[in-house]
């Protein structure tokens, strides 16, 4: 009879007691494997993970209340594929998220579908070196009862979101918030309020994505009272199209001055109070209210100046827009007439056409700029003090809304792009 060392027998015994397979493999010290039916074991395993652990999930549907991972390093959750390994949170009775990841250095999740949680589908908080790939995050319905964010890294560092799909979020399908260094690429987002939002995030690149069928395709926001300031965001080679749906953000968002409820149906790209932005080589097609909107915090909150600090400045600066392909349809989407910001866009178009019959009832120009500059803070008179730089060709390109005078009898929005053409 062959004799085995005592230590090997102990390892085999421990593995049998724990249920899942444990082995040295794939660069992780501990490797766990589960199948449908192991939900209780999975939840317990995630709560007791040690550094350098891999969790492999076999094909099938798993039903969970919620899952949590915290204060551990080098973790991989690996499914059999987004169409094969499914986490169903539809019976969730507690917890704010389907999966919550907190304070993990080196977190990866790959090859799963997350479905129908009450809150966010996956929230990754205060973590570093985060990789989210081949993940589908979906609510079966798209209305105000769904969670705010499908894929939600926040206060993180070094994030990659790749080959993912998000649907049904009542805020943003893919949301990167208060993060330093992020890439969103080769992703799709459909039937959310916002397809993707980069908020108070610095050094982000968003490219090779498709966002369509949302209220708004892509948002770059800086908001006050958050932990850090954003900026240095590049968005290129994306396809933002047919984002014309009703804004179904939760009522609290509509009630909030700063909420995503402000996004008008028919918005392709909205830049709000964000600086050092480059938007180029995108196809921005059939977002039938405004292809690109650039607005300051003052546009939605007249007290924005009182919120200025190291983490927030309300006026967008150093925004470079070039070489995008833009088209809009023949009319505003029906949902815009029921929306507070949407009604403003309709009013701007009507004013332009009333002032200039030669426009022959043309649509709102592709780029809508509120025209609120740092002159209101410095008492200056410069025409373009904040370096809005546009290199685009074609008719009906641009409007400076002159938003500070919208309630004045002398209000006169201007379609002259000359001061903003890149020098």
From TrEMBL:
Right handed beta helix domain: residues covered: 81-221
Domain of life of the organism encoding this protein: Bacteria
One Pfam family linked to the record: Beta_helix
SUPFAM superfamilies: Pectin lyase-like
Signal peptide: none
InterPro entries noted in UniProt: Beta_helix, PbH1, Pectin_lyas_fold, Pectin_lyase_fold/virulence, SO_2930-like_dom
Protein name per its UniProtKB record: Parallel beta-helix repeat-containing protein
Organism: Chitinophaga arvensicola
């Amino acid at each position: 009879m062959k004799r085995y060392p005592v230590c090997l027998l102990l390892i085999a015994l421990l593995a049998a007691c724990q249920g899942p397979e444990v082995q040295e493999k794939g660069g992780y010290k501990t490797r766990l494997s589960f199948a449908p039916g192991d939900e209780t074991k999975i939840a317990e395993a995630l709560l007791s993970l040690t550094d350098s652990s891999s969790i492999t999930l076999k094909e099938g549907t798993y039903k969970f209340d919620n899952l949590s991972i915290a204060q551990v390093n080098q973790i991989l959750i690996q499914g059999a594929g987004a169409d094969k390994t499914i986490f169903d949170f539809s019976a969730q009775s507690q917890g704010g998220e389907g999966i919550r990841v907190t304070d993990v250095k080196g977190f990866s999740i790959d090859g799963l579908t997350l479905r129908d949680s009450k809150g966010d589908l996956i929230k990754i908080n205060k973590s570093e070196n985060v990789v989210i790939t081949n993940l589908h995050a979906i609510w079966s319905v798209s209305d105000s009862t769904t969670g705010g964010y499908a894929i939600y890294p926040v206060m993180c560092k070094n994030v990659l979101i790749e080959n993912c799909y998000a649907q049904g979020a009542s805020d943003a399908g893919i949301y990167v918030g208060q993060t330093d260094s992020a890439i969103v690429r080769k992703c799709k987002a459909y039937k959310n309020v916002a397809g993707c939002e980069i908020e108070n995030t610095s050094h982000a690149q968003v490219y090779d994505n498709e966002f369509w069928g949302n209220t708004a395709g892509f948002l770059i926001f800086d908001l006050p009272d958050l932990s850090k300031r954003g900026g240095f965001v590049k968005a290129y080679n994306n396809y933002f199209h047919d984002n014309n749906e009703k804004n179904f953000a939760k009522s609290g968002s509509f009630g909030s001055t700063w909420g995503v409820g402000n996004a008008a149906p028919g918005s392709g790209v909205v830049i709000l109070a964000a600086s050092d932005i480059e938007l180029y080589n995108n196809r921005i097609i059939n977002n039938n209210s405004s292809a690109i909107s650039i607005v300051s915090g003052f546009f939605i909150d007249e007290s924005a100046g009182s919120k200025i600090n190291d983490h927030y400045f309300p006026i967008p600066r150093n925004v470079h827009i070039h070489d995008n392909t833009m088209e809009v349809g023949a009319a505003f989407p029906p949902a815009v007439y029921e929306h507070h910001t949407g009604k403003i866009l309709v009013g701007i178009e009507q004013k332009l056409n009333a002032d200039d019959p030669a426009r022959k009832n043309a649509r709102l120009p592709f780029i809508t700029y509120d025209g609120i500059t740092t002159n209101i803070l410095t008492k200056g008179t410069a025409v373009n003090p904040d370096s809005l730089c546009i290199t685009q060709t074609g008719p009906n390109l641009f409007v400076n809304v002159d938003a500070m005078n919208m309630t004045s009898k002398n209000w006169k929005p201007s379609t002259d792009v000359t001061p903003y053409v890149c020098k």
